Amino acid sequence: MLRCEICGKQADKHHIVYRCQGGVDFPLNFRYLCSEHHRGKNGPHKSRKLDLEYKLEMQKSLENLLYKDYYNLDELVGLLEINKGMLKRLLKEYKLYKEGYRSSDIVYRLMGKKRYTEDMLEEYYDFIVNF
Ligand SMILES: [Zn+2]
Ligand SMILES: [Zn+2]
């Protein structure tokens, strides 16, 4: 049985970058959350702030993991524990240099073709204060 990372109750798999946002199946994109911490009011599907925090954390983990400028497919498969065929398809639209794919392109694609910034959290707070 999967256990919630927060409270230890029975958990579902949450995609940090949702599939509808271009999110992909690989371990760094998963969090295991019980129904309350998943879809409850303090879960990422209801709390925009938590959703952003999870995404920022994931982006940071990816950037730390892919610290070199370029990676080839086999290196990525090993590091990300991701399906090779799927990854190849995802990266098809990005330039393959002789050194490999650019880390920034890989992270951008895995985040659902978005670059998340801390400012997005501040915008969220501004919104709450002004509301
Ligand atoms: Zn929980
Ligand atoms: Zn979810």
Automatic annotation (TrEMBL):
UniProt-listed InterPro entries: HNH_nuc
Superkingdom per UniProt: Bacteria
Protein name listed in UniProt: HNH endonuclease
Species of the source: Clostridium magnum DSM 2767
